[in-house]
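Translate sequence into structure tokens.
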Amino acid sequence: MINLLVIAIFAADMLINRRYPDMLPVYVIVAVVACMFFTVSVMVYIYPMLSHFENTIGMTVKNSAMLAIINLPQTILR
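Result follows.
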């Protein structure tokens, strides 16, 4: 449910950016897209980590973020 909320917020942000293109500078849009990519990359690794290891949610997110960064080429291909 939290993942759907995060994706909905990013989708709404992109729709607002498309409707009002001059509202935000380009570097803000690039930063939002980078955050979207990082969030989706972490989501790819969260579920396998949850099913295999017993960690707190914070540690699971931290480990998933580290895996997403370390395995960046494989993360992009997924």
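Note: The first helix runs from residue 2 to 19.
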